[in-house]
Amino acid sequence: MVSAVFAVDLRFNGELRAMSLVPDELRRDEARLSQVWGDIRGKAMIVCEGADLDSALAANERLYATLVAQLPATEVVSLAPLLPAAATQAANQQRWVAFWQGEAGRTTLAQLAGEGRRLGFAPAAFAPFRERLLAPAVVTPETLHQGGLGAVLDALLVPTPKGIRLLTLVPDTAAVRALFSGAGAPTDGHLVSQARFGEIVGAAIKKDFSRYLVLTMVVVLVLVIAVFRDMKKILLTLVPVVTGLLVMFGVMGLCGIPFNLFNIVATVLIIGLCVDYGIFMVCKVSGESDGTADRSVLVSGLTTLAGFGVLILARHPAMHSIGVTVMLGIGAAIPAALLVIPALYRGEEL
After folding, report:
1. What is residue 316's DSSP assignment?
2. Do residues 9 and 48 both lie within one domain?
3. Domains identified in the chain, total number
4. I need a surface site. Which of 1, 58, 154, 265 has the fewest CB within 10 A?
5. Tell me: the pLDDT tens digits for 112-130?
6. DSSP secondary structure string, 200-263?
7. Residues 59, 179: one domain?
8. What does pTM read for this prediction?
9. Per-residue pLDDT tens over the stretch 266-300
10. Which domain holds residue 240?
């Protein structure tokens, strides 16, 4: 009963990286890399696409405006400030030229010319500068390459057979994932998030495992009914199964150990062995088999713990998960089969 209370706290982890072994040296290198360049693994990616460069840039601008309204601009890595769409560049150029042709711009240029004369510059020294001010260049991918930003451009602008794909990096936080969920999500890009993928996989694991567990228990119950056809024996046979699963789920929920794909694989083994233990012990206490069944159950359980439970000491997360599942499930099922079934069959108080 205590395990059943904590079993509701069991959480499912669908993150594939959590099931991989990361050597300590690699972990330290990743930590140093993160300190210098930022937490790249902690970033989510937003993808904008367009049939041509300008349509992709326009969509990227709208996305950037949405993001900076919700997040600090320093946390959004985007080409939008560096490479705006053609319409935005044209509007910016008009405002730029209007400023320099206006009173404030003429005053600034006059001050520049006066300081130049005072410092001994030729009268035409700043003429090329003034000409460039009034005829600003259009920013293109080529000009960014020439300006030394080619690596950034190539990382965030990806040509595809169908057009242009622009990438934006943002923190992979719950706030960002919530922004792209529901009816109000931005339509100019779609989110690619490792954390979101893990949540989806975890939810799928939880749903499929619940369905699988119910189906398995129904099949086991049908087979046990076909074998014994006696309600008391049927219920006693299921004692090790129920005990093993409840203890496994309860301890994992209490200790905050997540349930993953490899725990599901090990659960198959637990259910099968626990049913066997229950069948053998019910046959023994009812006199339908010889008196060595309990020793057989004990030896089988101990060999299983020795073979699979020892994986709890493994460094690899996947193998460790199998070891935890078997150690908890079989470790609880053995005393339930050897002690609880005989006591319940005789009607003794536990």
Report:
1. S
2. no
3. 2
4. 1
5. 889 988 888 888 888 888 8
6. HHHHHHHHHHHHHHHHHHHHHHHHHHHHH--HHHHHHHTHHHHHHHHHHHHHHHHHTPPB-HHH
7. yes
8. 0.65
9. 888 899 899 999 999 998 888 877 778 888 999 99
10. 2-18+202-346
